[in-house]
Recover the amino acids of this structure.
């Protein structure tokens, strides 16, 4: 007789209360354990690595620095005179370099502030014609201490000087005189001066004509020397200034007929 093991165990449990008896139901071998853990791997971890690293930094390489290479240095060869700019006019504070006359071919010269009028008698009061400007006629006149030149010495005295002109047309003979502004060549007031020329174009006797001033460097111990006049200097002239002459007793001045500058003896006034 064949007895199933399961039935035997159940019988023993019923008779003797065999330990371990209980639910004898065999476990289900249903493989569906309902443990669906949603294994969908989509964890929404968007792996888009676009970090927007746009490298367009607009490195404009335009090197236009506006370095204008215009080298026009105004090398006008018609410049002639004793100065080029104010830096050359340092004899007295406030000197300026100006063109006289203010026309092409004029002469560049230093203009300094005129001296202040005097208010006291000179060292030679008997020779004074004024003590203060109140003694002078006209509103444009003032009293100045002047150094009058004589042979071998200077005789200081007071004298009235008045503005004579604003331009050449105010002079008595405009064609032969030039209005020299106060402060130029030692003049205290605007003064009409007899001249042999005014600008370079007046000098046509020979080549390289330059209308230039000349001074009393022989009879005067003043520095700068007083202006005598203006004349034409040409290429090939033996001198342009006193230092070009053989001796200190020679004056460099226009020759007779204004045909150029020559070294010549000069008779001092007085």
């Amino acid at each position: 007789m064949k007895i199933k093991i399961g039935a035997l165990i159940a019988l023993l449990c019923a008779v003797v209360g065999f330990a371990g008896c209980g639910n004898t139901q065999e476990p289900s071998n249903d493989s569906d354990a309902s443990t669906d853990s949603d294994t969908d791997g989509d964890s929404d971890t968007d792996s888009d690595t676009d970090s927007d690293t746009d490298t367009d930094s607009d490195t404009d390489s335009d090197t236009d620095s506006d370095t204008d290479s215009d080298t026009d240095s105004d090398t006008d060869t018609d410049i002639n005179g004793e100065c080029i700019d104010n830096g050359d006019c340092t004899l007295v504070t406030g000197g300026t370099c100006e063109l006289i006359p203010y026309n092409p071919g004029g002469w560049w010269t230093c203009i300094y502030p005129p001296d202040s009028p005097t208010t006291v008698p000179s060292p030679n009061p008997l020779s004074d014609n004024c003590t203060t400007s109140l003694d002078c006629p006209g509103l444009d006149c003032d009293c100045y201490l002047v150094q009058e030149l004589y042979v071998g010495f200077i005789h200081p005295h007071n004298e009235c000087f008045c503005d004579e002109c604003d331009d050449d047309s105010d002079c008595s003979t405009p064609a032969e005189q030039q209005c020299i502004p106060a402060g130029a060549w030692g003049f205290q007031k605007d003064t009409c001066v007899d001249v042999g020329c005014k600008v370079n174009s007046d000098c046509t006797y020979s080549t390289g004509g330059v209308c230039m001033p000349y001074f009393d460097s022989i009879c005067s111990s003043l520095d700068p020397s007083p202006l005598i006049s203006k004349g034409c200097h040409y290429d090939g002239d033996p001198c342009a200034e006193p230092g070009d002459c053989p001796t200190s007793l020679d004056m460099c001045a226009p020759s007779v007929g204004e045909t150029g500058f020559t070294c010549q003896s000069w008779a001092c006034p007085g």
User: Anything to note?
Assistant: The longest helix spans residues 5-16.
